[in-house]
Write a structure and sequence with these properties.
- The chain is of the alpha+beta class.
- It folds into two domains: 6-121, Jelly Rolls, CATH 2.60.120; 137-225, Arc Repressor Mutant, subunit A, CATH 1.10.10.60.
- 41% of the residues lie in helices and 18% in strands.
- It contains eight helices and seven strands, in the order βββββββαααααααα.
- The protein has helices spanning 90-104, 108-121, 137-145, 154-160, 165-176, 180-197, 202-209, 214-225, and strands at residues 6-12, 24-31, 34-38, 41-45, 50-53, 59-62, 67-74.
- It has a four-stranded antiparallel sheet. Strands 4-3-6 form a three-stranded antiparallel sheet, with no helix packed on it.
- Strand 3 (34-38) and strand 4 form a beta hairpin.
- Helix 2 packs across helix 6 (180-197).
Length: 229
């Protein structure tokens, strides 16, 4: 799973039985009405409604006809503050429509930024943060993917945030639920896909994204394309 989470479009029909996940599952209704039951509590997810299901909570879905939802599977602990809430902000609803179209068209930048932007937009106000210098993760990712003058590395990302590498790694674990290297790897691969789709050679793409060789980049892209086992 990517650092911010994985976005998918899902169509729901008849129930296939209850289940649970080891991550947060965030749903926003796009079309139809989804009947949802979480730990015995029922709710309806119509177009524009949403729900955040915490890890470990058993849930079941069902829809008459067909229901279509944007679904985010995420390990980010910041989603805990929104658990159970069914009214995302107008900004989040509009963003969900845009992300749904981007997922359909397989846009890698939407895959990279979408989960973070959806979290920020959920209630239309910034996620509460501590008194420490805030890290705008979406802006940092956007900066990194346009930085073609030198390879990406954790030190450069930390410096951009006015943090040491160790401080940046700690903040990444606290706020993104993963190590700085894992988050950087996701950025590198997303940037590599954009460059390759634009016709950039494998060698130049590897240089710009910090891979030690074209073969290392090719192997990383191949591993990413393989389905989870």
């Amino acid at each position: 799973m990517a650092a911010g989470g994985t976005l998918t479009l899902r169509h729901y029909g008849a129930s296939h039985g209850s289940h649970a996940h080891d991550h947060f599952q965030v749903l926003i209704g796009l079309d139809g009405v989804l009947e949802l039951e979480v730990e015995g509590r029922g709710r309806r997810i119509a177009a524009g409604d949403g729900c955040v299901i915490p890890p470990g909570e058993r849930h079941d879905f069902g829809a008459d006809g067909s229901s279509r939802c944007l679904v985010l599977d995420s390990t980010l602990s910041a989603w805990a503050q929104h658990a159970g809430q069914a009214t995302p902000s107008p900004q989040a609803r509009a963003l969900a429509q845009c992300l749904a179209q981007s997922v359909t068209q397989d846009h890698p930048l939407a895959t990279l930024y979408g989960p973070l932007l959806l979290l920020e937009a959920w209630h239309g106000t910034p996620t509460p943060r501590s008194a420490r210098r805030p890290v705008d993760w979406a802006a940092l990712a956007a900066w990194a993917t346009t930085r073609h003058d030198a390879p990406l590395d954790v030190a450069a990302l930390a410096a951009r945030c006015c943090l040491s590498a160790s401080q940046f790694n700690a903040r990444c674990r606290d706020e993104m639920g993963t190590s700085a290297m894992h988050w950087l790897r996701g950025l590198r691969l997303a940037q590599a896909r954009v460059l390759r789709d634009a016709g950039t050679s494998v060698a130049e793409t590897a240089r710009r994204t910090g891979y030690r060789s074209p073969s290392a980049l090719t192997a990383a892209l191949r591993r990413q394309a393989q389905p989870d086992g």
